[in-house]
Amino acid sequence: MTPIAITGIDCRLPGADGPDALWEMLVRGRDAIGPVPASRWAGGPPAGVPSRGGFVDDLDAFDHAFFGIAPAEAAAMDPQQRMAAQCAWRALEDGGVRPPDLAGGRTGVFLGVMGGEWTWRLADPRAVTPALGTGAGHGMIAGRLSYLLDLRGPSMAVDTACSSSLVAVHLACTSLALGECDLAIAGGVNAILTPALHVFYARAGLAAPDGRCKPFSAGADGIGRGEGVAMVVLRRLDDALAAGAPVYAVIRGGAVGQDGRSNGLTAPSRGAQREVIAAACDRAGVRPADVGVVEAHGTGTVLGDMIEASALGDLRAGSRDRPCLIGSVKGNIGHCEGAAGAAGLVKLALSLHHRLLPPSPHARTENGALRLASRGLRLAKAPVRLGPDALVGGVSAFGLGGTNAHLVLEAAPRRERPRPRPRPGGQGTPGRGGVFTLSADGPEGLRRNLAAQHRRLARYEDGDPAALCRASNRVKTGLAHRFAAPVTDHRELLAVLASAADGTGPLTGAASFGAPGGAGRAEPAIGLVLPGQGAQYPGMTAALYRTSARYRAHLDAADEALRPHVGLSVRDLILDGDGRIHRTAYAQPGLFAVEYALGRTLMDLGPEPAFLLGHSVGEFAAACLAGALSLPGAARLVGARGRIMEELPRDGAMLGLRWSRSRAAAFLDGFDGAEGPRGSGAAGVSRASGGEAAVCVAAVNGPRDVVLAGERRVLDRLRAMLPARDVLPLDTVAHAFHSPLMRPAAERFAEVARTVGHAPPAIPVFSTVLGGPLGEVPLDAGYWTGQITAPVLFGPAIATALATGPTHVVEAGPRPTLTTLIRRMGRDRAPVLLNACAGPGGTAGGTAGGIVCDDLLEVAAALYRAGADPDWDVLHPDDPPPPYRLAPYEFSTEHRFSTQVGTVLDRPRERPDPPPESGPAPAPAPIRAAEAACADDPHAAAVRAALAAVCGHSPDRIAAAASLHADLGLDSVMFQQLARELEERLPGRPAVPVRALLAGGDTVAGLTAHLRTRPATMREAT
Fold first, then answer.
1. pLDDT by residue (tens digit) across 263-274?
2. Alpha-carbon distance 598 to 69, whole Å?
3. Among the listed residues 337, 335, 46, the one whose alpha carbon sits nearest the alpha carbon of residue 195
4. How many CA atoms lie less than 13 Å away from 831 in the CB half-sphere?
5. How far apart are the first and last CA of the chain?
6. CA distance 418 to 426
7. What is the model's pTM?
8. Domains contained in the chain, CATH given
9. Residue 180: its pLDDT value, please?
């Protein structure tokens, strides 16, 4: 048989909400048997039946809003459907799968179900509604799960009585082996909704008076019932290992058989049990004697225990010297019937995972009549460490009607857990950084789950933050309300989670997009800006180069392209912290290499930029990233540009001023470069006595932000004339860039520029030569030659770009430069400004600690919070699969729905049926209040009241902007009900066809407006 990996587990069993809680209870040898909850059965347990059993807490709680299910529909759903939906989601997360990623794929659902008491509600005609039709029935439990997650693989509910869930797992393994599905959710669910089976077991002489199963014990006296849900996520082992999925244990083989005609329909058969176990071992490729531990069916009936021990003993012949350990989870939680086999499977998988078999409750005095020792069996009375010879196990489930199942498991191969690398100076665990992500369906859900993660991660004394972040990126990123925080230390991560979850302040680092449930989602629009000369510094991005494989690859590619034109490795120059990086011949290619590598890394991270804008030499990186220049072509241009400019006389300078462009032009018109203020020639240019331009406006960086360029002696004199408050800080340069003094360089550069081809950009480019969109202007030799002497019109260009409505602007440069200019512009509706690197004063430029650039992480976090789904592997492309399992999703328990079968008090309609021949009954008070509030708009009142009646929502929750599907949970059946409700509430109008409702759009306001303007004609109604 194809080996099948158990990659995820979740359960909700008596006394154990989740596999961690179950394992703790098992290891401690406790049971969770208690009295029947007072709210469970009307009138309590009947006389003569056990009044105790294994019951889960809060069976009536269901987070219907999380799944987009209306309250009326949730009230009509079998509690087994509710439990299965939440358990499946958590099991998938535990298996390292983001549930939304499965939509449309070949994922199978195989659920064992025995109890069908909820269908008894259909016997009461007053209770029958469309929602109850889909809320009851075995098949709908599996179908509902496939529907909620949009799964396209096989989907089935299996009922073979007490073996149902183990048979379901066997069918899932077979389906995976045949290639019918690529991932499977399998398990079982059971809810004790009535005392019917209590009565049956008692009258058949099968019930334990105290409600406890005591498997293989001298005190065994019958069955104690239990309830709950247990599910596993299954994948072919090769697929699981290739995907880096965690593995609890491996299913090697299984078999299903039948007792046939034995001494009674409900009586077990020793031979049939022996045959199915032997068949499972044969398919698994192991000898029965090699099985070191068996999770037995173990109901605790005298006959059942005897038959099972005998069947196992028959298979252990010749191996008495190495007894097989046996036990049964039923001693802890009771007999969970349809979920019993899955509960036993979970126990065995956890035992193999932890290499430990928990003790069996009630095992201190084993039943001597079973002769366990002579049969090569041993009942675990205390926790037993599983050695290498006990890492193959079996699990059995035998059905009341005779259908038997057995699976053979083995422990998963051990994986080396990466050891934390020491932080320099011995300051604890480092941790390369990452972005810890979490998502939920609302702010309260986010706080609740942040607290759950904090509780789980606090158990790791010194966790690897990068691995924890990778785990969160893989699993916890699919919902509308999002949290993301860059972290580089485990203690820092715990502090961030605690402060976000404590409820004392806003959710720092959290945001939401779209409507609840993800409706109306829109990804952020990102502008990428690239700075010019002056942003460089020795060692820029050195830490990022060491820790980011993706950035390293892109910088290496740029360096290789530049090397023939620069004469050395600009990469090595940068990483060595060489001061020559400030020389123009190296500054320009160095900046280009860094900006190209940062831009490519950001574009790999996603989403694609809405526009690109480069300042001066930054335009070359922008053109290359946009596809207008090839990397070799751009490298040739930049290398030549820097070299040619370096050879110019070093007598130029630049001066930044807090002036507008018009003020600077007027000043220069009246300034004589030789002697001071006096008349001059062309506007905005001051001329020396020889007629050459002495000073000009070289850059317009904002409304009150200009840069002058010209001869150093002239600018020194001009600076002395101006008040200090007018002067902006500007790095010292050796040349008057973007001035007529650069014409000699432009003439020489033109020869090189004509040798480089170009193409139309694939991403919109805003030109700082044109001061606006590039449009149809080609990025050819003429453009690049003219750019050398033309002023940089960054201010006009970025203003035009910002008018297109980007949500974020990211600077792909070695330090904040252009974002500082944008911030100085003081725009009312500025986008979020982000920097890929912090600069020499931040961790991005530091060399200690080996930490990923904080600012690149913050960019990823900010974009995720805004609705993007970054490719998180860009931050950790070469890292092994994360070794951690995060806490599963914690659902709300705020909303409660009846679990009693014999009542119709929770009927989904808010309006009672009218008494016979008495006319329509008045609407309930909440709906009357809603109608009164909208009395001036009868259509709005009718829509809200009708929706409240159909969906079960409180009218005050039915906001105008609410989505009919995502927020209110309407489906096609409910639209039919809504049409009828509207007909009653809009008297005098023709019937409202469903097509008219669908034409109104997906919001309450849209539907209301459509009905208000819809022609009231009988022709349309027909």
1. 777 778 898 999
2. 44
3. 46
4. 26
5. 60
6. 18
7. 0.87
8. 4-411 (3.40.47.10), 421-522+870-882 (3.30.70.3290), 526-648+743-851 (3.40.366.10), 652-733 (3.30.70.250), 925-1021 (1.10.1200.10)
9. 97
